[in-house]
C-alpha cells in the first residue's frame, strides 16, 4: 500500500493519523492495518487510553507464549535486548523469524507500538523499585550534569526506568514551593498552558495563526483541546517554582472553576448530588475497567466539568467508602458503591 492510501485507510481507525510521521505510518500500515480491519469485522473498535486488566493479562499471555515458542529465557531479554549485547543478534533473529510484532499484539485492538510500550513497562524489572534513597538522588543529579537529559543512559546506570529517572529529576532539580499558589504563579501557569496549546493548534493548522493574532483577549480553545495531554515538565520549567504534578493539579482546578462558572460542586447538597449522579452513571456503563468509561460523557452529565474532576471525585469515593478497595476490581468497586453507598447518600440528601 502506498503512503497516501495507507494514511487514508488508517484515518478510519486513528483520526489523528495526519499528524503522525511518514515512517510511523509505514510501520502501522504493515503491523496494524490488517489487524484493525479484522477487529472491525468483529465489531470491535480500536482503543486508546489506559490498558484494562483483561488487556494486561493478554499481553502477559502473549509474551509468555512467545518466550516458550522461541526459547528466549526471560521477558527482559525479549523486550530490552540492548541490555544483553552478547545475545542481541540471536534474539533479533528469533523475533523476526517468529513475527514478534504479530504475536505480542494478538487479541488486543490497539496500535502495536502502544502494546509494545505497555509490555516494556510491565516487564521492566527496573520499574516499581520504591522510593529513591538520598544517595540515589545525589547520583541522579551527578549523572544529569554529565549526560544532560539522556534518560536512557541514566536509567541504565541507575537501574531505574527512563520515565522514573526523568520525573524524579524534574522533582528534585529545584526548591519546590508547597504553600498556597500566589497570583504571580497562577498567571505564569495559565500563560504557559496557553502557550503550549497555542503552539499545538498552529502546528496542526498553520492557517489558524492569523485568527489567533487578531484577538488580544484570552485564546478561545475548543473544549476537546483542553483535555489533551500537555507537556507538564515544559510547563513546570516556565512556572519555575512548582513541581510538574502540582502544575497539573492546579490547572485542573482552574479548569473546573472556569467551566462550572464557579458553581459550588464540592460541598453541601450539590456535592451529594454530584456523588449520587456519578455512582449511577458509572453503574449504568457496566464497564469492567476505568479505561472503558467515557469520562467526558459522565462529566457532561454532572455539570460540564473536566474529566479530571470526575476522576478525582471517583477516587475519593472509593477510598472513603469501599473497604479493601485496592483488592477489588473496577466493576466490584462500582457495584459496592451502587449497592451500599448510594442508598446512604440518597437518604442524606
TrEMBL record:
SUPFAM superfamilies: Homeodomain-like. GO terms for biological process: termination of RNA polymerase I transcription. InterPro entries: Homeodomain-like_sf, SANT/Myb, TTF1-like. GO terms for cellular component: nucleolus. GO terms for molecular function: chromatin binding. Residues 124-172, 173-255 form the Myb-like domain. It comes from Loxia leucoptera. This is TTF1 factor.
